[in-house]
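May I ask for an example protein's residues together with how it folds?

___
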Amino acid sequence: MKESQEQVINVPDIKYEVYYSKFLALGFDLKIQELIEYLYSEDIEVTKDTAVPLLKLSEEYLLPGLKAKCARYLARILDKENFIELSELANTFQIKQLQDAAVEYFVCNRTAILQSLKIQDLPRYLLEEFIVKYVNE
């Protein structure tokens, strides 16, 4: 293919600025080349700085493999500082793996979390899941 020889992909009728502004609107300055490389190879490095924006992009562009990769990474880095943000994100995008990780984290760290947060700051699904899990233990 011509693209493989030139390492350039032309997408007629779609301007770079349109894609780029979409990424900026999502709060992430992702290079188009990285996303295109992921689309071809399904290989991308998920980091603390890229996980949430990539998750939003995966939802926007219906990329379940990328969504799962981001969810696994976010579940691993769940901590007291990002607990609320990631719990809400899990609920917003209905990411079962991340929701389960948030519930488990809450069960294991409830005292510290409740000392540092107000109960009304916690997502409703998290409280419901916690009650079910706590009652069952």
User: Anything to note?
Assistant: The helical segments are 2-6, 16-25, 32-41, 51-60, 64-77, 83-92, 96-116, 124-136.
